[in-house]
């Protein structure tokens, strides 16, 4: 009995036997065209979907054939080669589609060399570089990196820069900067502190500490209170302040934004009200907090 390593190295040459199936007409294999490619459910106790295709053979007979392996690129009108072989949990399926030529040919005559332009080896002692090279070789997907938020040109603050991006619409960043900076100037004229300090306090007052998220447990969906990450706190506060300012009637956006920021700095306004509603909802659903684990 050959081992799996021997099979992979040499490949097993199948013995061609005349079959008694009428569709194959005493041929070990038969060519055909896919008329339909779909998935079907096998017999119990199995439940995983099986890939099958209806194939019209060159002799005019149409049969149902099983598509083995993981994934495929077959579709309607694809030319395929079938062989005999029933599938235990699919009644009526007595044929297999033969996959690509390299699937069963082994690797003995295949080129196994690697490119000389591959990844460079790390220097001796550089364990970190070596691990990065191994990680880069093993990972096929591109690694995702967190987007770095750029500071605004006036206050050199990433929070202000992010707020400008939230206010911006249709790519008009210069206009968004003008609206935010003028609103902060208006805040400075209203209070004794600088407009920048009032702006920071308003954002802090509108930032939620907890929020509720829906989670399905069995057949019911529960609203589960969860702690909010620092980045999401700012995102929610910016969103609520912008929505509250936009809903105010009349006046320029600069004045509406300044008014909402002033209210938020004094723990008033629609943005702070929205935060309190979220906190109340989280408090009401405190009994479901154990479902988050």
From TrEMBL:
Keywords: Ribonucleoprotein, Ribosomal protein, RNA-binding, rRNA-binding. GO terms for cellular component: small ribosomal subunit. Transmembrane segments: none annotated. One of its GO terms (biological process) is translation. InterPro entries: NA-bd_OB-fold, Ribosomal_uS12, Ribosomal_uS12_bac, Ribosomal_uS7_bac/org-type, Ribosomal_uS7_CS, Ribosomal_uS7_dom, Ribosomal_uS7_dom_sf. PROSITE patterns: RIBOSOMAL_S12 (PS00055), RIBOSOMAL_S7 (PS00052). GO terms for molecular function: rRNA binding; structural constituent of ribosome. Residues 139-286 form the Small ribosomal subunit protein uS7 domain. Part of the 30S ribosomal subunit. With S4 and S5 plays an important role in translational accuracy. Located at the interface of the 30S and 50S subunits. Belongs to the universal ribosomal protein uS12 family. This is Ribosomal protein S7. It comes from Potamilus streckersoni.
